[in-house]
Amino acid sequence: MKNRISRYLKKSTYLGLFLTLMSVQEFYAQQVTGRVTDETSQGVPGVNVLKKGTSSGVSTDLDGKFTIAAKEGDVLLVSFIGYNPQSIKVGKSSTINVKLAPDVASLEEVVVIGYGTAKKKDVTGAVSQVTAKSFADQPVVRVEDALQGRASGVMVSKSSGAPGGEIKVRVRGVNSITGSNDPLVVIDGLIGGDLSSLNPNDIASMDVLKDASATAVYGVRGSNGVIVITTKKGSGKGKINVDYFTSIATIPKYLPTLADNVGDFARIENARRGTAFFTAADITAIEAQGGTNYQKEILRTGISKNLQISASGSEGKLRYFISGNYNNVEGIIINTNAEKFAARSNVEAQVNDKLKVGLNLFVNRFQNHNNFETFGSDQGSLIYKALTWDPTTPVYNANGEYNLRSTRSVASLNQNPVYTLDNSDFQQVQDLLNATFNLSYNISKDFTYSLVLGSAINNNSAQNYFVENNNNIPSAGFDTNKFTSYQMSNILTWHKEFGKHDLKITGVQEYNNSKNYINSFSGLNISLPKGYYFNQFADASSKKYASNFAQQELQSFMLRGEYIFNNNLSVTVTTRRDASSVFAKDNRVGYFPSAAVGYSLDEFLPKESFVHALKLRLGWGQVGNQNIGAYATDTRYNNVSYSFDGTTASPGIFLLNYGNKDLNWETTTQSNFGVDLGFQDRRGNLSVDVYKKNTTDLLLNNPLSGLDGGGGAGGSARGFITNNVGEVSNKGIDVNLGYDIFKNDDFTWNSNVSVSYVKNKVEKLSDGRTKIDGTFVAPGGQSRVLNVIELGQSLGQLYGATFLGTWKTEDVIPVSKTTGTPAGVPGQAKYVLDDNNNVAFGAIGNGTPKMFLGWNNSITYKNWNCNIFVQSVSGFDIYNMTQAGINGGAGDSRSFMSAEQVNQWTAANQTNVPTNSIFSNSSKFLENGNFIRLSNLNIGYTFKDVAGFKNTSLKVYASGQNLFLFTKYSGYDPENTTTRSTQGTSDVTAGINAGAFPTPRTYTLGLKFQL
Predict the structure, then answer these.
(1) Which residue, 302, 706, 840, 944, is most buried by CB atoms nearer than 10 A?
(2) 1005 vs 940: CA distance, rounded Å
C-alpha cells in the first residue's frame, strides 16, 4: 500500500511539473498576426490556420487576416479548399504573410480513374487526359469538339454539320457489329451521361480510360472505353466570368454540276435520250434564263450566338460553381436551326474535419428545328435531291407557286427540295435533369466512406409535319420518349502508407436502375398546316399508334487494390461482378478481372540526363458490352394496322425477333504495354501505348428466312434472332507528345501532338460464314447494297462493282453465259466480270479510318495569345453516293448532272466517261477520304485591370474553324457520312455519303470578361 501511494505521489509531481512547464510555454508564446492572400493578392476569408500538433486554430476574417498564439519554432498549417496546403514555421517576426497557390494537382498531377483518383506517376493503365486549358482558346459548343484530336486513341468524327448533328466518338476502334460502340460517359460519378448535352465551359477535365486494366472498374459497360468528366468547382475569392461569341457559318465550297451550265445539261439530255427532247429554241430560252441551281437555293450563310455566364469561389468551408449557357445556331440549310439552354450548380461544403458533402445539379433544354437527318431515306437526303434536281425548272411558276415537280420530268423525280424545307416543320425537344449528391466521410485517418446518389431524367418529344412524299400528302406525328434512371454507389477506401509501402484498397457496391417509356402517333392527309394536334382528322387507314416500355437493372460489386513500393513500383488489381437484367436469369452474372503493373526507372537515370523520367507499364483485363435491348432475350412483336377494304384499319402484330435465353454479353480482352517519358528538364513528355484487344461472343442479329417469320434486310427490320457469335479484333498504337518550345516571362509556345493507329479485323462470323451482306441501300430505287461484313477484313467494307472505264469500239465484248446478251456496247460502262461474264460484285474499299492525328499549339506573347489546332485522318475510303446521283447513277436521278459529262464517250472521242446511266455502287464513286484540316485558328488580346478596376480582365478574340481542308475528296467534306439507323450501325456503314449535311466554315468574334 505504501509503495502504491509513493508511485501515485511521483506521478502527480511529474504531472504538475509538466502542466507548469506548459503554462510557462504558453506564457512565452507570442501573438502572431498575418494575412492570407490568393494568386491575385486578394485577402481570402475562412482560411484555416492550425498550430501543428495541437487543436489550437483560427480562421481568417473577411480581409484574410488572422491572429494566433504561437512561439518561435512552431509550425502553422494553412489550408483552404481549392488551394495547396502550406506549412509555415514561426520565426522571430510576429507577422506572417501567406500567399496561397491554386491546387492544380486535381487537373495536372492527378488522374480520375473511376471511383477514385491516382497520381499521374502512379497510373498503371492507359489513360488520356484533356483539361479545360487545352481547349480554352477554341470557341466550342460541343464537348466532342473539345475532345477531338486531343486524346490519343480517341476518334471523334463529325458525321454531319447540321445543328445538333451526330458526332461519333470511338475509343481504340470498333468492337461490336450489332451493339453500340459508344464509350461509357461518367459525369461527376453519375454513370451514363450524354456528351452532347454538356456545356464545355463547365468541364474541368476529361480522363479517357482506354485499356481494360483501367476500364474494368466499370465491368459489363466498359468494353468501349470510358470517358470520366469532372466539372468545375469554385475556389478562392468570388469570380464572375462572361463569355460571349457570335459566329458566321459559310459554305466552304459548292459542288460543280451542270446547273451552272444549263445549256450543256439540255444537250446532254438530248444525247442520253437520242432525241431532240430540248429543241434549239428551248435551249436558247433556258440559257437566257440561266437555270436554277437548287444546291445554292437550299444552302445559306448561318449566324450563331453563344453566351456563357458563371460565378465561382469559396466562402469559409463552402465552395461553389454556378453557370448558365445559351446557344442559338442557324444551320447552313434553309429553315434549320437549334437552340440550347443549360444551367449548372455545383456546391460543396466541408461540414467538419471528417465530413464533406456536395450537390451537383444540371438542367438542359435542347430544341432542334428541322433536324436534317430526319429528311430523306431511300431517295437520299435533301442535299442529294437538290444536287440532282432539274435545273431547267425554277423554284416558282409564273403564278408565284412552287413547282412541285420537274416541269419536263427530267433529272430527280422527287419533290422540290425548297418546297419540302419551307413547308415542313419538325420540332425536337430534349429536357434533361441530372442530379448528383456526393458524400465523403473520414471514418479514421486511413478509412474513408463515400456515397454517390445520382438521378437522370431525360424527356424527349418530337412533333412533326411533313410534306416530303411523292403524292404531296402532308403527314403529322407526335412522339414522346421519357427516360429515367437512378444510381447508388457505396465506396469504401482504405489507404495506408508505411515506410516504402503505399497500399490503397477500394470497394464498391453499386445499383443502377433505368426505365424508358415510348409513345407515338402518326397520320396522313392532315389538311391544316403544321397540324400536329389534329391527327384525329387523318385518314383512318393511315393512323398508326405505338408504345413501348423497357426497364433495366444492374447490381455490381467492385474491388480494387493499388500498391506502390518505394515510389517506383505500382501494381493495380481489379475485379468487378455485374448482374444485368438484360440477360436471362442463368446468364446474368459476370466477372471482369484486370491487372496492371508500372515501374519507374527514374533512379537509374543520370542526373544530367536529357531524359529525367522513364516509366514502363503493362496491363491486361476483360470488360463487357451489354448494349442490347432490355428484352432482347425474349420473343418480341410489334403492332401494325392494315386496311383490307381500303378504309377501315384492322389491328395486328408482326414478329420483330425470336427470343434467345442463352444470350450473354460480349467480352473484350485487352492487353496493353506503355512507356511514359519526361525529358529536357520537364519541358517535354512522351507517352506511347501498344495494345491488342479481342471482342468475342459478339451480339449479332442474324436474319431469319421468310418461312421463319423473317423478311427484314440483314436483321435490321423484322425477323431476326440475336446470338453470341463472331469475333472482332483491334490492334493499335497511341502516341502523345507534348513540348514547351519556348517558355519565359513574355513568350511561351506549348505544342502537343496526339497520334493513333488502329487496325480493325473481323476474326469470326456465325455458322462458318465468310461474309454477311450489308443493309445500307443506295438511294434512287436501284436497291443496290453498299456495304458488307467480311471475314478477315475491317468493319466498314464497301461493296460494289469495279469500274474499268468504257467499252471501246475495238474491244471484243464478251457475252453473258446466263442471259446470252453482250456485257455492254461501246460507250457504256465497263466493269470487272465474273466467270459467267456478268458484272462481278464484291468488296472494293473500306470506310473505317486507320490513323488519327491532332496537333494543338498554344502561343502567348505578353497579353497576346494564339491557338492553332490541326486535325488529320487517313487510311479510309468514301463511297460518294452524292456524286453517283450527280452522274445519273440512280434510278430516280437518271439525268446527267455531272460537269464531266461534257466529255462523255463518242465514237470520235472515246473517253472513259460512259454514255449510259451506270451502277451507283461501283468503284467509280469510291474516293480516298484522307484529309488534313485547320480546325481552329484563334488570336486574342487580354486587357487587364479594365477601367481601373483591379483583378478584372477583358479578352477580345477572333477565330476561324474549318478554315482549310486539304483532301483529294471531291465532295463537301470527307468526314461527313450518312447514318440510317434502320440500315445498320454507323460503324458497319462507315464511309458512305448519300448527301450528308456539309460542315460549315465558321468565323467567330468573341469577348471574355472576368470580374
Answers:
(1) 302
(2) 10
| Distance from C-alpha of 328 to C-alpha of 311, rounded to nearest angstrom | 22
Entry pTM: 0.87
Count CB neighbours of 734 within 10 A: 26
| Cβ contact 891:780 at 8 Å | yes
In whole angstroms, what is the distance from residue 89 CA to residue 93 CA? 11
Report pLDDT digits (tens) over 137-158: 888 889 998 888 889 999 998 8
Q: At what angle do helices 280-289 and 262-273 cross, to 10 degrees?
A: 150
H or E stretch covering 803: strand 803-806
* Residue 127 burial class via C-beta count within 10 angstroms: exposed 0-12, middle 13-18, buried 19 and up: buried
Q: What is the DSSP string of 844-909?
A: EEE-S--EEEEEEEEEEETTEEEEEEEEEEES-EEEEHHHHHHTT-BTTB-S---GGGGG---SSS
What kind and span of H or E run contains 840? none
Where residue 376 falls (left for φ over 0; alpha for ψ -120 to 50; beta otherwise) is: left
Q: Taking the domains of the chain in order of start, what are their residue ranges? A: 2-99
Q: What is the pLDDT of residues 954-966, one digit of tens each?
A: 999 999 999 999 9
151 within 8 A of 254, measured Cβ to Cβ: no
Give the 3-state DSSP-derived string for 447-512, with helices as H, strands as E and coil as C. EEEEEEEEEEEEEEEEEEEECCCCCCCCEEEEEEEEEEEEEEEEEEEEEEEECCEEEEEEEEEEEE
Asked: is 2-99 a CATH 3.30.300.30 domain? The reply is no
The C-alpha atoms of residue 114 and residue 219 are separated, in whole angstroms, by 12
Lookup: cell for 806: 468504257
pLDDT tens-digit readout, 332-361: 999 999 999 999 999 999 998 899 999 999
